[in-house]
Write a structure and sequence with these properties.
The complex is a heteropentamer, with one copy of chain A (308 residues), two copies of chain B (323 residues) and two copies of chain C (268 residues). By secondary structure, chain A is of the alpha/beta class. Chain A is 42% helix and 20% strand. In chain A, strands 2-1-3-4-5-11 form a six-stranded parallel beta sheet, sandwiched between helices. In chain A, strands 7-6-8-9-10-12 form a six-stranded mixed beta sheet, sandwiched between helices. In chain A, β3, α3 and β4 form a beta-alpha-beta unit. Chain B has 14 helices and two strands. Chain B has a two-stranded antiparallel ribbon with strand order 1-2. The chains are: A alpha/beta (308), B mainly alpha (323), C alpha/beta (268). Chains A and D meet through β2, α2 and α3 of A and α3, α11, α13 and α14 of D. The complex binds adenosine-5'-triphosphate (2 copies) and magnesium ion (2 copies).
C-alpha cells in the first residue's frame, strides 16, 4: 500500500473509508483507489469500521484524515444517517466528500455519490428468481445480513419487490441473519431445511452466504432442485454461478466506484470543479441461464468484470 | 463430627456438570414439545455438526481457563490456520496432508507465542490474547488477500463426509470432536499433566512451591490449545468446504460461553472438559430449536441472552441446594 | 564435619525493605536445627532462599560443602530438600491424595502407565492413607478437596507430604502453628523419627517449649541476620528470648547483656 | 532489617501508572517525530474527543474490574441509553433534559440488573454481562426498529459544542470526561466507598468478615457503572449527533483494553482510574498517529495488536526493575 | 449472672460433614474464655456462628440473655462483637491504616467530610500508629500494603483492629498462631487489659501454656460439641489434653477415664 511512503508534503492526499476491513468488496475498492491514486500522483490513506454498522470508527477516521490534511474523502457509510454530521464538519473544513456504494441519508450530505443501487440489485435478482421459478409455488428462505444494516435491508427489500411479494408473505418460510459469513450461512440453511424441508428458493445477502447455503443443501442432496440467487458479484461468486452452484447474482463494481472517486478528488486538487450528484456505477445480473424479460449477462462477462 | 455416607443420587447432583446437564435436558424437552422437527436423529447430528467447531475451540479454551487464563485469540488463530492449510493445499503444490499439518503447526505456534508472552514476561492472558487477536486477524487478511480459498482437495474436506449410524448421517468431524473431548477428559482427569493444570489454576505460587515447572506447564497448555485450534480449523474447512478469511470472529466469546455454561470457573482450577461439551451443546440446541420454532433472529439473540443467564442460574441454585 | 546445608552472606531486598541482610546458616548432619526470631526477622525469607523459592540478591549456598545454585523449588526437591512452607503449599480444589503426590505422581504399571500415562489413583490413595496415618491425622476421606479441611488438617497434609518425600533435608516453616495439641505432638514425634533416620531437620517455630523439647541447636535470627547459634541446654528459655529480642547478645558462647532495661523486664 | 528511605523519583517509578504513562509519552514522541500534524493542540483536542466515549465507559469498567468483576455489556447498554434518550427527545414530546435523564436512568437500571444477578444469585460477572450484552443488543434493535434517530434537539448535542482554550477548540464533552475521571479518582482514593471497592476486589470473604456489606456494595458499583455508561451514551450522542442502534459493539473489549493498559489488575483490588485515562489515550494516540502517518488500515490493526502487548510489556518490565 | 453471649444446640452441616453437632456455649461477663479442641473439632465454625460469619442450620444464640439473630458480621459488629478470624481478614493490597479502619473510616471534619465525604487519612494513620504501638508491633510504615508484611505482622494488624473497636465482646481465633514470642506476649497482655476493662474475651488457642496463663475458664470442644467446661486451676494440663482427645470425660466436675490406653499413653 501507499502507507509505506512517508507523509510527504508534496503530494496531495485522498482518504478512503470502507465499512469494514475485510470484505473482499472493500479490498477491491482499495485496490481501485490505490491504482487511481498512483496514476494521479496522490497519496492514499485508508481506514475502516470494525464491524458492519460501526459508525464511531468511521467518524474517528474522518476526523483524523481531515487532521492529516486530505483533499477529499471517499466513504462507504456504515450508518447512512449517523455519519452525516461528521461529513458536514469535514466539508466545512473544505474537504470534498464522496459517498461510494451506499448513499448517505440525505443523499446531498456528500458532494457526490458513486454507487450501485442496492435496492435495484435486489430487485433484479428477485425478478430473475420469479422468472426462473416459472410458476412453481415458491418456498423461500432469505439469508440476510444483520439487524439494521442498510445494504442488507435494501437488498432484501429489493428482492421481495422484484419477486412481487410483500414483507411477511407466507411463501417466505425462513429468514435468518448470517452476517454475510459462510459458516453462519451454512448453519442458517441447515436449520431452515430442518424447519421447512421443502424450501426451493434461497435468496442470500452475498455469495459467501450463498455458498454456505449450497453446502447445506448438498449435504441433504437437494442442491439440484433448489434455486440460489445472490447479490454482490465477487469472483468466487461468479465462478459459483458458472459452475451452477448459484443460479444468478447481481454484480456490482467497487473498483470502478473507487477509481472514479479518486479521479474526481484529483480533479479538485488540481483546481477543477467539485463533483456533484449521483453517478450510477451500475449493476448487472450475471447468469448462464437467463430468463425471459430480465436483462442479464453471462459469466464470461461476469468473470471479466468481477472483483475479489 | 458425624459422618453421613454420600448416597449415589447425592453424588451425581454434586458433580459440577449436573447443573449444565440439567439445563441441556430441560432445553431439549422444551424444544421437543414446541417443534415437531426437533427430536430427530438427523437434527441432533446437525446440532453436533454446528457446534463442533466452537466446541473444539472451547476444548483449548477450557485448558487455558483451568490455568486461570483466558484466550480471546482462538477464533482468529483458527481462521489463520484454515487459510494456511487451504492456500498451501490449493496453491503451492504441497501434498494436502502436509498442508493440513502446516496449518495446525501454525496454530500451535501462535499458541506457543501466547504462552511465552504470558510466562516469560508475566503479562495477563487477557491482554496478550487481545493483542494477538488483532495481530492474527490482520495477518489473516494480509496473507489471504481477503480471498476465499475454494476447490479444495478431498483430504481437506474428508471430515465433512458422513457415515451412517442406524438411520442417521454422522460426519467424521463430529466423531473426531467427540473423540477429542474424551481424550482431553482423560488427559485432565487421569494424567499427571492434567492434575498439574488444576494445581496451577488453584494458585500459581502453590504450584511453583510444589515443584511444578509452572512456566513450562503454562507454555505447554497454550501450545496444546493452539494445536487444538488447528484441528478446529480443519473441522471448519471440512464443514464449509472453503478457506474463509472472515471465519471465527465471534468464536472467542462463543467458546468462553460454552466453557462457562459447562460449569468451569473463570478463576481457574475448577471444571471439567465434558462440561464444556455440554455448554457448547446448550448453545447449539437453543440456536437450532429457536430457529425451528420460527423465532426471528433478533428475538433469538434476546432469548439466547436470557437463557445464558438462566442456565447458569439453574446451575448455581442446584449447587446451593446440595450445600 | 561438613554442614549438610550452609549459607553465607545472603541478602534479599524487597524494594526498600531488607528482608535478609547478610544472613549465614549452618545445618549439621542428623540434627534438628530450630530457627527462631521475631516476626519479620527474615526466617521465612532465609529458608525460601535455601529451598529455591526465592533468589537471593547476594550470597552463597552450599550443599554438603559444595556451592550450589538452587534456581527453583523443583531443583531443591531434586536435591532431596523438602519444605513445608508457611503459606501451606496445597492446591485447594484438589483432594488430599493428589496433593500428597503433586509433582511426582505414580503411574499405572505396564502399558497403561508408560504409553497412556494413566495415573494409579488407587495406589496413591493407599499410600497417602499410610502417610496420613503415620502422622495420626484423622481424616474422613482422602478424596475430599483440601479446601474443605480445617486449617489444622490442611497443615497436616503439607507436613505429611514433606516427610514422605524428603531424602536429604526437611525444612518446616511453623508446621505446628495451626495444629492442635495432639497433632502438634505427632508432628514433633515425626520430626524425631526423621532425625532418627539420620536426616537433618530445620524447624522454624515460635513455640519455645517445642523448640526446647526437640531442637539440638538453635539459630537465632534478628533483623535479617543470624545473631547467635546456641544449644538449648546452655541457656534458659528466658535467655534465648532475650537474645531473640536483642536484650542479650552472645559473644564467644557467653551471653552479654546489652539492653539492661529489657533484660530486667524479662526477669534476668 | 535496615530501612532505605524511598526517594522521590523511586516513588514515582513505583506508582502503578508510571509504566502506562511512560508508554504514552514514548508513543507521543514517536508520532511527533514521524508526522508534522501530530503535535498540535487541535490534534490533541481531537484525540481526547475520540477517546472520550470509550474512556467514560472505561471508568465504569474500572470500577467493576476493581471488584474483580468484568463487564461485557457496557457498549450495548450505552447504545440502548443513546437510543432511549434520542427517541424520547425526538418522538415523544418529552423535554430533552428529561429524555436525557431517562436515558441515563435506563443505563443505571441495566447496571443494577447486572449487580443483582452477580450478588443475589452469585453468578460470575463474565457470564451475567455476556448474557446481558445479547439481551440489551436485541432490545436496542427492537426498540429502535433499527432506525437511526436524527434531528436531535440542541440539549442532546450541547456536549459536542466547543469552546476555546488559547488557540484550541475543546468540546464540553472532553471537559466532562476529564472531570468524570477526576471525580472518580477522588471517590476511589478519598472516600470510604472507594476503599471498600478495593477491599472487595482483594477478597470478597475478607470484605464480608470486616463487616462491609459486600452485596450492597457490589450492587452500588454496577449501578454507578451503569450510570456512567448513561453519561457515555450522552457523550456519544453529542459527538455523533444521532441516536445509533449499531453503536458500541466493540466498546466492551476496547474499554477493558484501556483499563488493563492503565495498569489495573483484572484480578481486582489493584489499580487507579487515572491509569485508565492513560490507557484510553494510548489507544487513541496510536489510532490517530498511525492514521496521520498514512499507515493502511489493516496494518493499523496489526500494529495496534503488537503495541498493546508491547505497552503492557514495558509496564511489566519497569515494575520488575523496581522490585 | 446472665452470660454475655450464649448458644444452645448449634448445628452446622457442610454437605455430609457435620461441623457443629448441637454445640452449646456460654461466655460470662468479664472473663477470658478459652476454647480448645482438636483440629476440626468445630471451634472456628462455632465462633463464626456466634459472630454472624456463618448461619447455623439449627440452634439459638443469646446476647445478654436475649435471643438474637446475627445475620452477618456487620450486625455482630454493631452489637459490639469484634472478631479476629483465623483466615486473617485483612485486605492484601490496602495499607495498614486503611485496614484498621476498614468499614468505619473517619471523615474529615466540616463540609469536606459531610458533603465531600473525604477521608481523614492523616488522623486514621495517627490513630493506627497508636493502636499498633499499644500492641508493640514494630512496623516501618503504616502506608505499606498489608501483603508486604510477614505473616506475624499481618496477624498483629488483625488483632489490633479487633481490640481497638470492641465494645462488648472480643473473639479471637488463634490470634497468636503466627506470632513470635514477644508479639504473642503482647497479645496476651492486650487480652488481659481488655478483660480488665471489663470486657469478656473468647480465645481459641492450641497453645496450652497460653491458655493456662490467661483463661478464667476453658470450653472444650470435641466432635462438634462442647464436652466440658472447666477451670484451669481444677485440672492439670495433661488432664485437659486428655479431655480434649476423649481419653477422659468430665462428669459433674470430676474427670472419669474412658479410654484407659490413651490415658496411660499421656501419663495419667
Ligand atoms: N514479597 C514481599 N514483598 C515485600 N516485603 C516482603 C515480602 N516478603 C517479606 N517481606 C518483608 O521482609 C521481612 C522479612 O519477612 P519474613 O517473612 O522473612 O519474616 P519471618 O521471620 O518469616 O516472620 P514471621 O515470623 O512473621 O513469619 C518482613 O519485614 C516482610 O515485611
Ligand atoms: N466451608 C467448608 N466446607 C466443608 N467443610 C468444612 C468447611 N468449613 C469447615 N469444614 C469442616 O468442618 C469441620 C470443623 O471445622 P472447623 O474449621 O470449625 O474446625 P476447627 O476446630 O476450627 O479446627 P482447627 O483447629 O484446625 O482450626 C472440619 O472437619 C472441616 O473439614
Ligand atoms: Mg515467616
Ligand atoms: Mg479453626
Amino acid at each position: 500500500g501507499g502507507g509505506e511512503q512517508k507523509a510527504s508534503t508534496s503530494s496531495a492526499k485522498v482518504g478512503l473509508i470502507t465499512k469494514t476491513e475485510t470484505n473482499p468488496f472493500f479490498v477491491k475498492m482499495k485496490e481501485g483507489a490505490q491504482k487511481a491514486a498512483k496514476a494521479e500522483g496522490m497519496e492514499l490513506m485508508t481506514a475502516a469500521g470494525k464491524f458492519d454498522g460501526d459508525n464511531a470508527s468511521q467518524l474517528t477516521a474522518i476526523e483524523n484524515m481531515v487532521a492529516a490534511g486530505v483533499k477529499g474523502i471517499l466513504i462507504t457509510p456504515n450508518d447512512t444517517k449517523a455519519i452525516v454530521p461528521a461529513i458536514k464538519k469535514a466539508r466545512d473544513a473544505g474537504v470534498v466528500v464522496i459517498a461510494l456504494d451506499t448513499p448517505t441519508d440525505p443523499q446531498d450530505a456528500t458532494d457526490a455519490l458513486f454507487a450501485t443501487d442496492n435496492l435495484k440489485a435486489g430487485e433484479l435478482i428477485g425478478q430473475y428468481a420469479k422468472g426462473a421459478m416459472a410458476g412453481k409455488t415458491a418456498k423461500i428462505a432469505t439469508l440476510d445480513l444483520a439487524p439494521g444494516i442498510t445494504v442488507g435491508q435494501l437488498r432484501h427489500d429489493g428482492f421481495l419487490k422484484g419477486f412481487g411479494i410483500a414483507e411477511g408473505d407466507p411463501s417466505v418460510v425462513c429468514s435468518q441473519d448470517t452476517r454475510g459469513d459462510q459458516a453462519k450461512g451454512q448453519e442458517a440453511m441447515e436449520n431452515c431445511l430442518q424447519k421447512a424441508p421443502d424450501i426451493n428458493l434461497v435468496y442470500t445477502i452475498n455469495e459467501p452466504a450463498a455458498l454456505g447455503a449450497y453446502t447445506a443443501l448438498k449435504a441433504k442432496g437437494r442442491e439440484k432442485d433448489v434455486l440460489i440467487v445472490s447479490v454482490d458479484g465477487g469472483c468466487t461468486g461468479v465462478k459459483a454461478v458458472k459452475s451452477g452452484e448459484i443460479a444468478a447474482t447481481s454484480q456490482q463494481y467497487p473498483l470502478k466506484m473507487a477509481e472514479d472517486g479518486v479521479k474526481a478528488v484529483a480533479a479538485v486538487a488540481k483546481g477543477g470543479a467539485k463533483p456533484k450528484g449521483y453517478t450510477d456505477t451500475g449493476v448487472t445480473l450475471i447468469t448462464d441461464k437467463a430468463v425471459q424479460g430480465v436483462e442479464a449477462k453471462d459469466t464470461a462477462f461476469g468473470l471479466a468484470n468481477c472483483w475479489g | 463430627m458425624a459422618v453421613m455416607e454420600a448416597t449415589l443420587p447425592r453424588r451425581i447432583i454434586s458433580t459440577p456438570t449436573a447443573g449444565p446437564l440439567g439445563a441441556l435436558l430441560l432445553a431439549c424437552v422444551f424444544f421437543a414439545v414446541n417443534s415437531d422437527q426437533f427430536l430427530t436423529g438427523g437434527n441432533f447430528s446437525l446440532i453436533i455438526q454446528q457446534v463442533m467447531v466452537v466446541g473444539t475451540l472451547a476444548i483449548g479454551q477450557t485448558l487455558i481457563i483451568l490455568t486461570a487464563g483466558i484466550d480471546l485469540s482462538n477464533g482468529a488463530i483458527m481462521a489463520f490456520g484454515g487459510i494456511v492449510m487451504t492456500k498451501l493445499a490449493v496453491g503451492s503444490g504441497l501434498p494436502p496432508v502436509l498442508a493440513i499439518v502446516a496449518g495446525i503447526a501454525v496454530c500451535a505456534a501462535f499458541g506457543l507465542a501466547n504462552g511465552l508472552l504470558v510466562t516469560k514476561i508475566s503479562l495477563p492472558p487477557f491482554i496478550v490474547t487481545l493483542g494477538m487477536l488483532n495481530v492474527v486477524f490482520a495477518l489473516t487478511h494480509i496473507y489471504s488477500e481477503d480471498q476465499t480459498v475454494t476447490d479444495l482437495p478431498a483430504a481437506l474436506t474428508f471430515l465433512g463426509q458422513t457415515f451412517k449410524i442406524g438411520e442417521t448421517n454422522v460426519t467424521y468431524g463430529s466423531l473426531l470432536t467427540i473423540l477429542l473431548f474424551l481424550f482431553f477428559a482423560y488427559v485432565l482427569g487421569q494424567t499427571a499433566w492434567g492434575r498439574h493444570v488444576y494445581a496451577l489454576g488453584n494458585s500459581q505460587e502453590v504450584a511453583r512451591l510444589t515443584g511444578i515447572r509452572t512456566q513450562r506447564l503454562t507454555i505447554s497448555v497454550y501450545t496444546i490449545a493452539g494445536l487444538v485450534y488447528g484441528i478446529a480449523a480443519l473441522l471448519l474447512v471440512s464443514r464449509t468446504g472453503v478457506g474463509d478469511p472472515q471465519a471465527g470472529q465471534t468464536d472467542n466469546l462463543d467458546s468462553i460461553t460454552a466453557v462457562v455454561l459447562g460449569g468451569t470457573s473463570l478463576f481457574g482450577g475448577r471444571g471439567l472438559v465434558i462440561g464444556t461439551l455440554i455448554g457448547a451443546l446448550i448453545v447449539g440446541v437453543f440456536r437450532n430449536g429457536l430457529q425451528l420454532m420460527g423465532v426471528p433472529s433478533i428475538y433469538q439473540t434476546l432469548i439466547t441472552g436470557i437463557l445464558v443467564i438462566l442456565a447458569v442460574t439453574v446451575d448455581q441454585l442446584s449447587r446451593r441446594r446440595t450445600r | 564435619m561438613t554442614p549438610v546445608l550452609q549459607a553465607r552472606g545472603l541478602v534479599k531486598r524487597y524494594g526498600h525493605v531488607v528482608a535478609l541482610d547478610g544472613a549465614d546458616f549452618d545445618l549439621m548432619p542428623g540434627e534438628v536445627l530450630a530457627v527462631i526470631g521475631d516476626n519479620g526477622a527474615g526466617k521465612t525469607s532465609l529458608i525460601k532462599a535455601l529451598t529455591g523459592a526465592l533468589q537471593p540478591d547476594e550470597g552463597e549456598i552450599l550443599l554438603d560443602g559444595k556451592s550450589v545454585r538452587i534456581r527453583n523449588p523443583l531443583e531443591a526437591r531434586r536435591l532431596g530438600i523438602e519444605t513445608v512452607y508457611q503459606e501451606l503449599a496445597v492446591a485447594a480444589s484438589l483432594d488430599i491424595a493428589t496433593n500428597l503426590f503433586l509433582g511426582r505422581e505414580l503411574r499405572k504399571p505396564g502399558l497403561l502407565g508408560t504409553i497412556f500415562r494413566k495415573l494409579d489413583k488407587k495406589r496413591m490413595r493407599e499410600e497417602s492413607a499410610n502417610h496420613m496415618a503415620d502422622l495420626k491425622i484423622g481424616l474422613r476421606s482422602l478424596t475430599q478437596p483440601v479446601e474443605s479441611l480445617s486449617g489444622g488438617q490442611r497443615q497436616g497434609v503439607a507436613v505429611a507430604r514433606a516427610v514422605a518425600w524428603a531424602r536429604h533435608v526437611v525444612v518446616m516453616d511453623e508446621p505446628t502453628a495451626a495444629l492442635g495439641v495432639k497433632e502438634s505432638g505427632q508432628v514433633l514425634d515425626m520430626i524425631k523419627r526423621v532425625r532418627d533416620r539420620g536426616m537433618p531437620v530445620v524447624l522454624i517455630s515460635h513455640n519455645m517449649p517445642h523448640v526446647f523439647e526437640i531442637a539440638d541447636r538453635i539459630h537465632v535470627q534478628r533483623l535479617g541476620r543470624r545473631v547467635a547459634q546456641i544449644k538449648p541446654g546452655d541457656h534458659s528459655m528466658a535467655e534465648v528470648v532475650a537474645i531473640m529480642t536483642g536484650a542479650l547478645q552472645v559473644s564467644e558462647g557467653k551471653s552479654v547483656v546489652t539492653d539492661k532495661d529489657a533484660a530486667e523486664a524479662i526477669g534476668l
